[in-house]
Design a protein that fits this description.
single chain, Nucleotidyltransferase, domain 5, six-stranded mixed beta sheet, 32% helix
Length: 334
């Protein structure tokens, strides 16, 4: 569920805000709030800019721009910002139109209040393939944000952009893309250092579950080094990891929790009974089964939480630590 805050500057704007809060809340896809009574709205925006998925401003564009200007960092981290006039005639995508989802939000709000959506991003108004929108759609991590501009410029100039994928394609490929060699191209791979083109826009699918196990009170640095070294050996970027999984006995294991926090990867667990129900052939251990109630923690948890995906790296062991990787079924969809 996406979190949104709505800021209004006038009495008429606040009336529109009340209606919009009600309509958005009914969709069951947004958590909507407004600044608490008595709190300075500029301070509210500043304190929550990086804690919300989006902001909706109702009023003059100049005021909204002055509110957010000191807070803007990069298109891959900034929230969506949409601007409405106080009469609700226009719904304008102001910031993070593609990666932040402001274009979609502006269009959705326009439908709710019968307004005209205003979208100004070049690929949209020219009805061209937008690589940053597509990357969000297929859940891929963008390695170098600056390459978005290069790929978009190539497309807007009427040139085709190449695409290489280590995964199957599904659907009709956009006219702007080709599998034939081109100077500028998109590379979809777990290996973020793979450069098949003169200028390569690397995308890393975030589709791997990292299953882990370890002795109690394993060192934080030792655990991190173990995981990163194994990923590096397999040429798998850390951003390909969608989630970390283990047995519930490790719910509060410091080394796993710290790794999860540092790299922003959710950590989830299952009981021994739940892991024993996972079907497949695993590298079992009698000692582990006696200790935890399940013969293999890392492989079983990786498979379970990858939607019954396939193991792409079987159990690796070192110093009382184990890890395995499982990948869910995924394709380059258009």
């Amino acid at each position: 569920m996406k979190t949104l805050s709505i800021i209004a500057f006038t009495k008429r704007g606040k009336n529109l805000r009340s209606k919009l809060v009600e309509k958005l809340s009914q969709l069951d896809k947004f958590e909507v709030d407004i600044p608490p009574e008595g709190q300075n709205q500029r301070d509210f925006v500043r304190d929550n800019f990086n804690r919300r998925d989006g902001f909706i401003f109702i009023g003059a564009s100049g005021i909204a721009v002055r509110y957010i200007a000191p807070l803007i960092k990069s298109k891959d981290v900034d929230p969506a910002v949409v601007l409405l006039d106080e009469f609700g005639r226009y719904s304008i995508s102001l910031l993070s139109g593609h990666l932040g989802g402001a274009n979609e939000l502006a269009e959705e709000i326009a439908q709710l209040i019968d307004a005209e959506p205003i979208i100004t991003t070049a690929t949209d108004i020219n009805e061209k393939f937008a690589v940053d929108v597509w990357s969000r759609y297929v859940s891929c991590h963008i390695v170098d944000i600056s390459m978005i501009k290069r790929v978009s410029a190539e497309i807007l100039e009427g040139n085709k952009v190449a695409i290489y994928s280590g995964f199957p394609f599904e659907g009709e490929m956009p006219d702007e893309l080709t599998i034939d060699p081109r100077p500028v191209g998109i590379c979809v791979s777990f290996n973020s250092r793979l450069k098949p083109f003169e200028e390569t826009f690397n995308l890393v699918p975030k589709i791997i579950t990292l299953g882990v196990g370890c002795r109690k009170n394993t060192g934080i640095k030792a655990f991190e080094k173990f995981i990163l070294s194994k990923l590096d050996e397999e040429h798998i970027d850390i951003n390909a990891i969608e989630k970390i999984a283990s047995i519930d006995l490790k719910n509060y294991e410091p080394c796993i929790l710290e790794f999860s926090k540092k790299y922003g990867i959710p950590f989830i667990t299952a009981t021994a009974d739940e892991l024993n129900e996972v079907e497949g052939i695993f590298d079992g251990s009698d000692f582990v089964k006696k200790t935890t109630g399940v013969d293999n923690v890392c492989e079983r948890s990786a498979v379970k939480f990858s939607d019954k995906g396939k193991i792409i790296l079987s159990k690796q062991s070192q110093g009382g630590m184990t890890m395995a990787l499982a990948m869910k079924d995924w394709k380059c969809k258009f």
